[in-house]
Design brief:
globular; about 250 residues; Rossmann fold; six-stranded mixed beta sheet; 7 helices; alpha/beta
């Protein structure tokens, strides 16, 4: 059962050190933060600030060296690799800048792929297909079920990726530069879709280097040298400045 009333994300003293002996790099330095259920949060910072490391740990793709990470009330930092993989598959939805879709595979089958890896044997085929159809309809691609990635625009591919992120009804959506490969119009469409998901109660954490994109969210957490440099509330996220055209 999900931790009702608890933060979706809570970290205490999260530290990540790469290397051994005399050559060590501290990518995260005692990061403590919490993100409540239903929040839409941007994580910003210059290259080397630790934002990618933080996202990898929050997404159970990496482990902290020290500190604790609670996801929906569960202490993920105590889980082994198999347990973290199960959490990653069931409770976290990923949206990547480069979409990460399988080539020569239809939109529908890209979307339902996470259901094939559930440790309980997965869902019946008919149930998986129906769920995939529902998710593609949710992102406005009900007429693109059989299209492969090369037959879709960048914005449509990102919509497929968002549908895939939603297929397991995750407690957390992690978006890594979701508009980074898109033109300004497609980027606006993707941000509008993320707003809709947020309005439906989804918890979204988004990495971005673009302050204009960050203004779409409730909060902006800025990292610097592996530490939280600032954590600020944004204004009216429904009226942000237009996205800058991709160059």
């Amino acid at each position: 059962m999900r931790g009702e009333g608890l933060p979706v994300i809570e970290t205490q003293g999260l530290t990540k050190i790469y290397g051994m002996g005399e050559v060590e790099v501290t990518a995260l330095d005692r990061v403590s933060l919490h993100i409540d259920r239903g929040e839409f949060v941007a994580v910003m910072g210059p290259s080397g600030s630790g934002k990618s490391t933080l996202m990898n740990i929050l997404g159970c793709l990496d482990r902290a060296t020290t500190g604790t990470y609670l996801l929906d009330g569960d202490d993920i930092s105590q889980f082994d690799r198999a347990q973290q993989a199960a959490i990653r598959n069931r409770q976290i939805g990923f949206i990547f800048q480069s979409y990460n879709l399988l080539a020569r595979t239809t939109a529908l089958h890209n979307v339902i792929l996470p259901l094939l890896y559930h440790r309980d044997g997965g869902h019946p085929v008919a149930e998986r297909v129906e769920r995939g159809r529902e998710m593609l309809a949710l992102v406005g691609l009900e007429d693109r079920l059989a299209h492969q990635p090369h037959q879709l625009s960048g914005g449509q591919q990102q919509r497929v990726a968002i549908a895939r992120a939603l297929i397991s009804d995750p407690v957390l959506i992690l978006a890594d530069e979701p508009t980074g490969n898109l033109d300004s119009r497609s980027g606006e469409e993707i941000m509008s879709l993320l707003h809709r998901l947020h309005d439906d109660g989804r918890t979204i954490v988004m990495v971005t280097h673009n302050p204009t994109i960050a203004l779409h969210t409730d909060r902006t957490i800025t990292l610097q040298d592996g530490r939280v440099d600032s954590d600020v509330r944004n204004g009216d996220r429904r009226s942000p400045a237009p996205l800058e055209a991709k160059t």
